[in-house]
Amino acid sequence: MKYFMTIIILLASALPMNAHSGETYTPEKLAALYFDAARNGRVDILQGLIEAGAPIEARNKKGYTAFILAAYNNQAKTVTYLAANGADICAGDHKGNTAQMGVAFAGHDDMARKLLEYKCAVDAVNNNGQTALMMAALFGRTDQVQWLVSKGAEADKKDRLGNTAVSLAKQQGNRKMVDLLHSKTVHPAER
Questions:
Q1: What share of the chain is helix, strand, coil (3-state, %, to 5)?
Q2: Alpha carbon 86 to chain centroid distance?
Q3: Residues 137-161 pLDDT 10s
Q4: What's the pLDDT score for residue 119?
Q5: Architecture in CATH of 121-191
Q6: What is the pTM of this model?
Q7: Rounded to the nearest 10 degrees, how much is the dihedral formed by the CA atoms of 155, 122, 135, 85?
């Protein structure tokens, strides 16, 4: 435990925090340090914390893991490090939202492509039955929609309210997205 606390104190000084010398590091402060490191792409700090015994699958109050936070904040090196060290890359938060769903919301196309390489279920659903494709269509993420569909995402899949990726794009008045989804899901003979 003494080694762990020494590592934490040394690592804490590397982040821009209001920590004072000799401050007591409560479990809450250690958790905040861990999640801040993920958000800010501080692989060095995450590595030290994990080597000192921090669980790679630790979750914050909303159920976000370091992997989800790193992806959402477009921290490619951190995502790679966490994936290589055993993070559950397909995990969802307390609402069932995965990293892939988060980057569809945030609009990080490069990260979306990177996450698709990890081969999580492309049609994974959150607690409301929503998929990453639905979120990408809702927010007009054309490239992400194309990649998700190319990996087998179903545009006809319905959430708990009966919405599909197509109906969500229609609700947004995004005719180009509707046309794109139809071109990817309807066989040429059926058009």
A1: 55, 0, 45
A2: 16
A3: 999 999 999 999 999 999 999 999 9
A4: 87
A5: Alpha Horseshoe (1.25)
A6: 0.83
A7: -170
